[in-house]
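REQUEST FORM: STRUCTURE PREDICTION
Request ID: SP-0412
Submitted by: Lab K.M.
Chain count: 1
Length (residues): 92
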Amino acid sequence: MGERTQAERDEMTVEIGYALFSAAFAAAVVFGAIAGPKLMFAMPYAVERGLLLAATSVAALVFPLRVVTVLRRFSREADRRDRPDRPGRSEQ
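STATUS: Completed
RESULT:
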């Protein structure tokens, strides 16, 4: 790929930060949606424990899935920007 410019490195840093932040937010929303009924309703201990386990498991899956999705999309867009639309012709 060659050397990257400072602007490209900055863009990558911002994209990584966005991926991590949006993944944490998505995982928190999913956790809250699944574990939320535990706070709203009186439930047996086993059900509460099951909700917490399910919420933790799903949130742990959502986080890396979101990070990978955002970074793969960024990578594809960066590759598309680097390749000229018409091979053999220079940008004007």
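NOTES: The chain has a mean pLDDT of 89.
Reviewed by: T.R.
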